[in-house]
UniProtKB/TrEMBL annotation:
<dbReference type="InterPro" id="IPR046815">
    <property type="entry name" value="P2RX7_C"/>
</dbReference>
<feature type="domain" description="P2X purinoreceptor 7 intracellular">
    <location>
        <begin position="39"/>
        <end position="111"/>
    </location>
</feature>
<dbReference type="Pfam" id="PF20478">
    <property type="entry name" value="P2RX7_C"/>
</dbReference>
<protein>
    <recommendedName>
        <fullName>P2X purinoreceptor 7 intracellular domain-containing protein</fullName>
    </recommendedName>
</protein>
Length: 120
């Protein structure tokens, strides 16, 4: 299921560490991140809770129960999104509702990720 979603270039929250074919991904995955880098990144994302100026697709919303780390525009999620949806929001893609909003598909994807050892 995950492979089919990838082949359609629709992978929510793209994770480059899942790409086993590139040698850089293993080097990036093994890189140690300092506490200061994490604090700086979280602080930058926390500032997104007060507005949507950071949104590039014009469909992002900030909800009351959001955390700063959840405030990401689909345009900031890596190469697959612009490939699948060159303009506009990924939610406008014809396969978005089938692959990302269907409970059965999400359950199968969850089971596959869990089988591969990915924690949610």
């Amino acid at each position: 299921m995950l492979l089919r979603a990838r082949s359609a270039c629709v992978v929510a929250y793209y994770d480059s560490s899942l790409d086993n074919d590139s040698p850089e991904s293993s080097a990036e995955a093994s890189r140690v991140v300092s506490g200061a880098e994490v604090d700086e990144a979280v602080e930058g994302l926390s500032s997104r809770l007060s507005n949507t100026d950071w949104c590039e697709c014009v469909h992002c919303q900030v909800l009351a129960n959001f955390r700063g780390i959840e405030c990401l525009c689909c345009r900031e999620m890596g190469a697959p999104v612009p490939t699948a949806q060159p303009y506009g929001c990924i939610t406008e893609h014809q396969d978005f509702s089938v692959l990302c909003l269907n409970i059965a598909v999400l359950h199968v994807a969850y089971l596959e990720l869990r089988a591969w050892g990915h924690t949610m």
